[in-house]
Amino acid sequence: MRRRAALLFVGLVCCRGAAPQQPQDRDIARLVDSLRPVVERSTGLVFRAPTRSAMKSREEVHDFLLEKLRQEFPPERQEGVEAVYRLLGLLPDTVDLKSLLLDLYTEQVAGFYDPASRTLFGVRGAEPAMLRLVLAHELVHALQDQYLPLDSIMKKQDDADQQTAAQAVLEGHAMIASILAFAPDRDLIRQPQFWSMAREQVRSSASSMQVFAKAPLVLREGMIFPYLNGAEWVRWWDSAHAGHPFPTVAELPRSTEQILHPDRYDRGDQPVPVRFDDPEKPLYEDTLGEREIQVLATVLRGGGEVVDDAATGWGGDRFRTYRTGTGPALIWYLVWDDAPSALRFRNTVGVRLLGLKRQGYRTTVAPVESAARSTVRVVIAPAKWDRWEKLPAIH
């Protein structure tokens, strides 16, 4: 699923390969060393320390990622995430999210960087030319890790939208740098026709993967968004901040809205913090953000391309899922920039959510009249839930 996966899980989604030829384990260090100066030139950053590297078999990669999923996606969290996605109509009830994520992350992976061990891994069985491309991309992540605390950034769990925004910068930066590493004409990435072709190639390559092609839209878009939209944001950063090749921690975008609309980042349009006034411990709590709201709108209208040209007027959001005796309950608050944006959400996404029928459930989409800013509350819960008459508030 979008953004809740650590950076190491994703790999380079547009680079695949599993031919019989493969480098020997002793070759990986020489290959990485040969790529270091290339990556430095393409990023404008200098390595501050050596880069550890090793090879893993596909079976070892599978076991490694399975253990990471167990650590970062324990049963209660999985239950909570599945609840919100299922209640919103983004995920079928029959899908086991953890198993699908594992299949997605291991599908034809050729290499990855692990921030926890600060090690760059190549995968045995990858075709050598493809492995070189992937390692160049992942080596950019190793370089980023010497300037930013990647491990802590990607383990952030209380604001998924902010985590996705940070991931988009990291992946977008690595994508552009790895392109420039092998086609070092920097003007190349500024040419609209090249970038249109590159975007199409990423989507086409990803769609040719069997597991990816059959995954729900929210997962497919979650995997592609950091690369495509992240690269667009980094291109904007490069043109707007000449001589400053990479953002600091303080300069990282705080929302997918800022990734989608750099002008909002430029003018300091920060997300509105939303917090529940409720002592009861929920099953799960997090944010969705503008990007997932766009995906939700696409799914509810029957599919098609996710439209992200115009800002939605999103200001901030927060949801909670609760475990009840007759099924999970969802409470989702959305703060909007103004009343027209809130009304537009209610008349489009809100109306379609009301049209989703779930046996034994009740759905409401209503403005919060007492809120200081334009706010909409969405509740999808069992009809006999004992908290319907006393829903938790926010500040």
Task: Find the count of extended strands (DSSP E, 2+ residues).
Answer: 10
Report the structural category. alpha+beta
What is the average of the pLDDT values?
88
Specify the number of helices. 15
Search tags:
3-stranded mixed β-sheet; disordered N terminus; alpha+beta; 2 domains; 395 residues
Characterization of the model:
The chain has 395 residues and is of the alpha+beta class. It has two domains: 255 residues, no CATH class; 119 residues, no CATH class. Helix content is 48%, strand content 13%. The protein has 15 helices and ten strands. The strands form three sheets. A five-stranded antiparallel β-sheet has the order 5-6-7-9-8, with helices on one face. A hairpin with a 4-residue loop joins strand 2 and strand 3. Helix 2 crosses helix 6 and helix 2 packs across helix 8. The longest helix has 24 residues. It is globular, with a radius of gyration of 21 Å.
Describe, in short, the structure shown.
By secondary structure, the chain is α+β, with helices and mostly antiparallel strands. The chain folds into 2 domains: 7-261, no CATH class; 276-394, no CATH class. It has helices at residues 7-10, 27-43, 58-72, 75-87, 97-106, 128-144, 150-154, 160-182, 192-207, 210-214, 217-240, 256-260, 262-266, 289-300, 339-355; strands at residues 52-56, 111-114, 119-123, 276-277, 284-286, 314-322, 329-336, 361-367, 375-382, 393-394.
Per-chain topology:
Blueprint: H1 7-10, H2 27-43, E1 52-56, H3 58-72, H4 75-87, H5 97-106, E2 111-114, E3 119-123, H6 128-144, H7 150-154, H8 160-182, H9 192-207, H10 210-214, H11 217-240, H12 256-260, H13 262-266, E4 276-277, E5 284-286, H14 289-300, E6 314-322, E7 329-336, H15 339-355, E8 361-367, E9 375-382, E10 393-394
Parallel strand pairs: 1-3
Antiparallel strand pairs: 2-3, 4-10, 5-6, 6-7, 7-9, 8-9
Helix pairs in contact: 2-6, 2-8, 3-5, 6-8, 8-11, 11-14
